[in-house]
Amino acid sequence: MTTGVHQLVVSLVDDLFGPICAKTVSTILKNSQIGMKEIIERTGFDKRTANQCLCVLIKHRFVRFDEIGEKKRAVRYTVDILQSLSLPFYPMFVNIVKQQHGDMAEVVLEELLHQGSSFKDSLLDICLIRLQTSVKDKHTVNMETLDSIFEVLRSRGYVEKTEEPSEDGEPPTKKSRSSGGVMWRVNTQAFYTFMRDTQIVEFIKNRFDEGAGEVVSVILLLNNQIDGDMSQCSSSASYDQILHALKNKSPTMVPFAKSYLDILTDSDLGIVKLVDDFGGGSFLINFSNFYLEYAKHHICSIVRERFGPKSHRIFSIVMAKKMIEQKQVAELALIPYKDAKELLYTLYTENFLEIQELHRTPDFSPLRTFYLFHVPLEKLTLKLLNVCYKAIYNLMSLRKDNLNENSRLVDKSLRADASTLAATQQGIAPEDLEDMLTSSEKQQLGSCMRVVKRLDLGEINILDSISALTHFGNNQNVH
What we know:
Blueprint: H1 3-17, H2 19-31, E1 34-35, H3 36-43, H4 47-59, E2 63-68, E3 74-79, H5 81-84, H6 90-101, H7 103-115, E4 117-119, H8 120-134, H9 143-155, E5 159-162, H10 174-177, E6 183-186, H11 188-207, H12 210-226, E7 237-238, H13 239-249, H14 257-266, E8 272-276, E9 282-285, H15 287-307, H16 309-321, E10 324-325, H17 326-333, H18 337-349, E11 354-359, E12 369-374, H19 377-405, H20 407-425, H21 439-478
Antiparallel strand pairs: 1-3, 2-3, 4-6, 5-6, 7-9, 8-9, 10-12, 11-12
Helix pairs in contact: 1-2, 1-19, 6-7, 7-8, 8-9, 11-12, 12-13, 15-16, 15-21, 16-17, 16-18, 17-18, 19-21
């Protein structure tokens, strides 16, 4: 991982846990794998502070430990970078649960993310107190309702069992593993799987239409009902199963199902595959091909934004042809040769393209050599991922600076909102209260919030690209 990724991880931990934990993570990252003694020496913290800090980080899975040695076992700590980089996705996880299961489920998941891991009873007690202070009709909130919501989240795979870290930051002992009941944590992989399936459906809708997206969503739904998630492809669904699921979900789509399946399986994308022809056929979703196409889509979007539509056209042609000469690019792109050459070499110097030399003679003469352009997809993916992580770090820094500059107004606005809420609970109308903010302060605060909102939207867009590129990179590593 690059320095930019390490900076982002430290910044994320700093925002969530403060400078002490951030310094601990930074120290571990600099040394890759490190023991408790070295952490204390290099951070300057006392043993108690270092222990507490490690306990919190282990509980949230941002730091993991390994025992090395046979007789005298030593514990070494490393930062789980992938788990740490899931932090920006937490608001998306919360929003998914809110859309599917309502506000109470949102509070349960939010609290579990905040704690890292927790016993079920203590988690639901905290959620009950939070909800009773914020919900008008307190009779609708009770422990039985929260318990049923928790069971729904468990059945969906959104929460999973885990082990309790010891209080001194050391690995759990056999005694601690068997005491105190079961602890639970958020299963981030289940959310990534849901987000992936949503991306597949939206991608198919954009490439074909709503009907094709409905058919694909049904195959994915059957995949979850049959075998669950698979790394390379979904489980196969028969034509009869697809028809039956469409009758329940979208009855109007049933007469067109066969036509859509034929179109999808004949497509060059290769996302929907026909497994066999028996009884109308069996179909599955090839995740590997989707990761490839989705990554290409995002990379092409980046090229368009950075270099313009003509460069995007040239890049798309090179990607489609895999290997192509300069002259052919100009002809296919319908761009003058001189302009095409300039754009090609701009992409080449920025490492979006590479050149493969094919020599026709043993003397390696340039006049008798073919120069073929191609897209180094794997290397380009890694490069763009690092650029995206750096962009996320810059956006977070800008947002933090903007909020710090206006911290007085933000705090004053929060106090005003708290006063308004307290007055409303006492039966006082908000319009009867004296306004705590002047018109100029409101204008300044509004400008600050608009900037923060734009930065948040930019972060969401970058996270979508990170998701696409990460899926493709992980899939390539599996192969």
